[in-house]
Amino acid sequence: MITTSVLVLLGIGFTAAVILAVASKLLYVYEDPRIARVEGVLAGANCGGCGYPGCAGAAQAVVDGKAGATVCVIGGDAVAANVAAIMGLDFSSMEKQIAFVDCTGGVRAEEIYEYAGVRDCRAQNLLYGGSKMCPEGCLGLGTCVTACQFGAIEMGPDGYPVVDPALCTACGACAQVCPRGVITIWGLSARITHLNEITDCLAPCRQRCPGQINIPRYIEQVSRGDYAGALETIRERIPMPLSIGRVCPYPCESVCRRTHVDEAVGINMIKRFVADWEMNSGQRLPISCAADTGRKVAVVGGGPAGLACAFYLRRLGHSPTIFESMPKLGGQLRFGIPEYRLPKAVLDWEIEGILGLGIDVEYEKVFGTDFDLDSLKTDGFEAVFLGIGAWMNMTLRIDGEDSGGVETGTEFLTKVGLNMETGIGRKVVVIGGGNTAIDTARTSVRLGADVTLMYRRTKDEMPANIEEIIGAEEEGVKYLFLAAPTRIVADAAGHVTHVEYIRMELGEPDESGRRRPVPVTGSETLIEADTVYTAIGQKPELSCLYDESGTCPLGQTKWRTLDAHPVTLQTALPHVFTGGDMHTGPALVITALGEGRKAARSIHQYLTDGEPHYSSKLQRELIPYTMFTNVPDVGHRQRSTIPHLVSYDERTCTFKEIEGALSSEEAKHETCRCLRCGLTCYNRDMTGDQECLAEHCAKIP
Ligand code: FAD
């Protein structure tokens, strides 16, 4: 009996042991040991500021890959470095993220009602969609300020939140509570690679700028005296504010809402002011770059497009090398645009700053002759940017064009840019109506020639910048409008003596919208000339893309430019990208710079994700409802004028720079003319009359 009982007990005990052993195997929950280790190095405050339930929750999120090494918002860099070490991440390559308020706008165009309940943006937004008419902008009740546990946000003098980057830990609490989504947590790479989206707060000027510069933001920064911040804003989009501040025809100003009151804000003069402020200080502002990735990219062509592409690739951590056929960089900025508009010393200073980030250059290396796509691949370049501009000149296709003394305007300007002998005579005829024609004419004047500029349409149709057209006239260039060359007459030695031209009259508009010039039969006339410069257009020289068998792996457009995806700028070969005049045909410096950044963005995405991205939300055209036809209640305010550094008399015999920069007082005055537009708002209080303006400006420290 006793034996049976013992056996039963032993059996029960054994069965229980087996069940427990099996259960422990089946119900065992594995915990990644890194969770405990990560939790061990976190600050231990269990504050929840990271958005997770205490430090244990944060550690779990890190190990699950839901949070980064910088998860602990009060731990600072030391804690983040420890977390990164446990997770096997490279802490030095982690970008600092900060909160960025996208709405710094003005008072809304129209107040609909004022909600007197709880002073909370979320309640306001939920109950009434906000008290202001703008459906996108900041409501200004400061819920983000209350949400921030680090005192990093406060309401600025105009009632909009201002972030202190030094205190911001990028915990995201402000972004979480903002019902309008106007606060984003950004790192440098995300800011550099962002393209305008229709949901962004895009003032008309910002929509129109081919470089996508956040114009309202830098104007607001200059108005507060934050010149360094303004330059940082500009350099998130273009690397050459000194050059652009001098040569841009500022398309942004054409849509400035202030034109409905008096004249556009002098956007480009403000940019030039702040860019000159840095250069004249002699100190370069630091430009941040992501940690090295070691990925090699070849940038072919060192004009504005190539320089911008290399600049942003470097800022994104990659290693670009520029291959340039000329002995110096700058492209048409150096060899087209003359000294009196853009001094070489200024251009050199700007390019030195770009190269100073750690960009290599191979000078006098001609693509298609000294190297090609295959050799670049062999040399370890993982992607290629092609930006060789549009240097092939169109010909007049008239008799005598090959006579001595007949040359293209760009050849002449390049010789001047290289300090070479030009062989210019005394009586010069320039043919064309664009920037190249005007620069050729004004440069010829400075070399002592008597210059006539012949154009087949009228002054109104000239594509050159209006200031240049007026400047040329002031310097004595004679215009011969509605005249087209029909023949170059040469002497017995084959040197030009006259240009024969025919009178034109304007007919119906052509596909460009300009009225088509029609010849007046029998009106041929001769004009005397010992030198003729033609400047009737350029296109890219694409022969360098063909191999010995005459094959080109890349596509071309009907305008004989390099074909590429309109947003990503990727060509038919996935690792080859393009931008600038080579892609668009002859355009503007700001367009080339904008395309350079876009291409760098795509190359970065290609290197990191395998392919470039584009979003359906991208802003391509002007957004119609943001284009106002009037801005009531805004008083007149005189636009500043650019000072001239050289007198009219002196101008025709010197290459000294003509235009100067605004003084700091003038720049501030100009920033106070800005209406601080957003998608729909503008600030009438700030500009309504002299008193309001003075009040606003008094708030500026
Ligand atoms: P580019 O500036 O042409 O640069 C291309 C670079 O590629 C050059 O450095 C070239 O040497 C190099 N390259 C060419 N072939 C090869 C090769 N096979 N291998 C290696 N390298 C090569 N725009 C404005 O906004 N405002 C103005 O006032 C203005 N004035 C102008 C005046 C003139 C006379 C000219 C010609 C243009 C002007 N423009 C102006 C237009 C502006 O300069 C161009 O749109 C801009 O420079 C284009 O930049 P890019 O980098 O695409 O090409």
Keywords:
701 residues, alpha/beta, 3-methyladenine DNA Glycosylase II, Chain A, domain 3, FAD/NAD(P)-binding domain, five-stranded parallel beta sheet, 35% helix, 13% strand, elongated, binds flavin-adenine dinucleotide
Structural overview:
With 701 residues, the protein is an alpha/beta fold. Among the domains are: 33-87, Electron transport complex subunit B, putative Fe-S cluster (3-methyladenine DNA Glycosylase II, Chain A, domain 3); 296-391 and 540-546 and 554-609, FAD/NAD(P)-binding domain; 392-539, FAD/NAD(P)-binding domain (3-Layer(bba) Sandwich). It has a 5-stranded parallel sheet with strand order 7-6-5-8-20. A 5-stranded parallel sheet has the order 10-18-11-12-13. Strands 14, 15, 16 and 17 form a 4-stranded antiparallel sheet that branches. α19 links the parallel β11 and β12. α10 crosses α24, α12 (241-247) crosses α13 (267-281) and α19 packs parallel to α20. It is elongated. It starts with a helix and ends with a helix. Bound molecules: flavin-adenine dinucleotide. Residues 247-249, 300-306, 323-326, 331-333, 336-337, 366-368, 387-389, 391, 410, 413, 435-436, 439, 465, 544, 580-582, 586-590, 592 line the site of flavin-adenine dinucleotide (FAD). It comes from Pseudodesulfovibrio aespoeensis (strain ATCC 700646 / DSM 10631 / Aspo-2) (Desulfovibrio aespoeensis). Its cofactor is [4Fe-4S] cluster. [4Fe-4S] cluster 3 binds at residues 148, 168, 171, 174. GO terms for molecular function: 4 iron, 4 sulfur cluster binding; electron transfer activity; metal ion binding; oxidoreductase activity. InterPro entries: 4Fe-4S_dom, 4Fe4S_Fe-S-bd, 4Fe4S_Fe_S_CS, DPD_II, Elect_transpt_cplx_RnfB/RsxB, FAD/NAD-bd_sf, FAD/NAD-binding_dom, Helical_ferredxn.
